[in-house]
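Data deposition worksheet. Section B asks for the primary sequence of the deposited chain exactly as it was used as input, without tags or linkers unless they were present during the calculation. Section C holds the resulting structure in token form. Section D is free text for depositor observations; keep each observation to a single sentence. Incomplete worksheets are returned to the depositor.
Section A, Depositor: J.P.
Section B:
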Amino acid sequence: MRQSGIWRWTALWVCLTAWAALPAPAVAYLPSGAHAIDLMARYLGRPEALSVDQEVIIHPDRSSPLVVSSGAPEAPTADSPSPLPMAVPPDAEKTAVAEPAPITVTETLYYRFPHSFRSEARGAQTERIHLAVGGARLTLVDGALHSGREFRFDWYKDILLYRHPAWLGPRLASLGVDVHVVSLGRVDDTTILIIGARFPDRSRPQIWMDAVSYRPLRWILPSTGAEPPVEICYDRWAEQDGIRYPMVVVYRAGDRVLREIRVLRLRSMASAVLPPTIFDRQSLLQRADTKDIPDAQDRDRRIQQTIDDFGKRYQ
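Section C:
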């Protein structure tokens, strides 16, 4: 009887020792910001070059519906002020309210890793070319040059382009993400690793990734005063030739979808396959209508207006 008890205690001790020797769950490990960025970059893979064909669906501001009228309009109230100047006869009567249709634009992206990017977006009447090489950026809309910073609808590609911590870390820091702050959180039964904020604080720029695979999930951009808070959501990841890429990217402001990007074709390749001038800034400048170059004082206003002008062409 005594010997049986000794064996039981021995077996229990062996089990406890083996359990203690097991590695801790991956989510219990909190890496530094630099290490987390490196893990995310490794998840994405590091090819030489990539081209992407996609469609961009631009959703209109549904707070400003299009009024289709055939009679006298109702007077605006405090709860429903008139969103636009009245464009119908004063004796017209409002009969219907129609929401503007989304605008769909086709776009081709070219990546040469880790720091060269070009996008070519075309519609029925407008062409937009955006070039980002290292820290230099250039945008042409119908030949008119828009130099200076990118606006938020260009930022989604930065995580996908800078697939090396030496480039991605400084780029995120330049856009306001505190790469030295890392925390863990849990959302929708998924444990997430956050770079840039202490969970659940959403008031700071931050990157969310899956805490096990290090797959990017969201990029939260808080309000800047002039711009509302926006979330960039990366979804439906695909793998090709050892690289990973989201087939759907969605910009959201609260519960409203601002923009959807849906990948139609993804092709990895050697960088030598790309045309030699595709990332050449001077080659693109030669196509620009230089008389339209904005001066330093109104440059930001002109660049911010670019996407509005681009979208209006397709209404």
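Section D:
The CA atoms of residues 65 and 109 lie 32 Å apart.
The helical segments are 2-21, 33-44, 157-161, 165-174, 281-285, 299-312.
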